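User: Could you write out the 3D structure of this protein bound to glutamic acid? I've included everything you need below.
Assistant: Certainly. Input first, then the structure.
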Amino acid sequence: MRKRLMFITAGVAAAALALSGCSGGDAGTGSTDGASDGGALFEVATDVQLEGSPTYDAMVKADKVRIGVKEDQPGLGYLDAATGERSGFDVEMATWIAASLGFDADKIEFKAIPSANRESAIVNGDIDYYVGTYSITDKRKEQIDFAGPYFETGQGLLVAADNDDIKGEDDLAGKTVCSATGSTPIQNIKDNFPDTKTEEFDTYSQCVEALNDGKVDAVTTDQAILIGYAAQFPDDLKVVGEPFSTELYGIGLPKGDDALRHFINTMFTNGGDTWTKIYDATLGASGTKVTQPAVDDY
Ligand code: GLU
């Protein structure tokens, strides 16, 4: 097995990752609740010293890391109810961060938190960080901080495979579209599509169910999420049109923990080909090619 060491320095923080040569693309799952931890894309090779981060200090004290995720978004954050295995790009990103902080998969506690409850979960200290299709916005930054961005996508539309009416966002007048409460896509519809009716649920999988039942005309959220649902129901659903917003995903962090934010940003910047390996093993498996966005100081 090919091993490559990569050293990461973030101010006072230093971590070293050893990539396990995972050429077959079998991603590590990092789940504590039943998932196997074989075939990880990364592992920690040396001790981490991260000073001045209250969040990291609390993790060390608790000897675990609590990560907020989605678990109904195939390819991104998904829990297989039958096997208890978690998978997806966000799950792997979350696990990579934990590994870089010195926490193996068996020290991770994943908590499913829907879009509307993310800021409060971070503010209340229910989780140490959040990784789940979480767009960086100024409004959210009033309460929390973001590391990243680590992924770029845009708002899209999912419709029934036999729907010929809706080909893009210009066809939404008089239609009912479904999205998640507290999300940027539902806000965009409410703000900018006055002739479109909305239906909302806690999760996107509830919207997909409503679409499959013919109760709504479309589901709208990030295209990266919709592609996963279309792949789940290839005969029944299709993604239409071009993305009509820019969504930059960030890691949700407690406000003011600059040490942890800089640590993660440096990890993303100096991560070598870890990002690509994770992408190829998860979202990229569908054949869509994208590249890692440049990290910014949000
Ligand atoms: N990225 C958008 C957001 O953060 C939609 C996806 C989601 O709700 O997680 O609101």
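Residues 6-152+248-286 form a domain with the D-Maltodextrin-Binding Protein; domain 2 fold (CATH 3.40.190.10).
User: Perfect, thank you.
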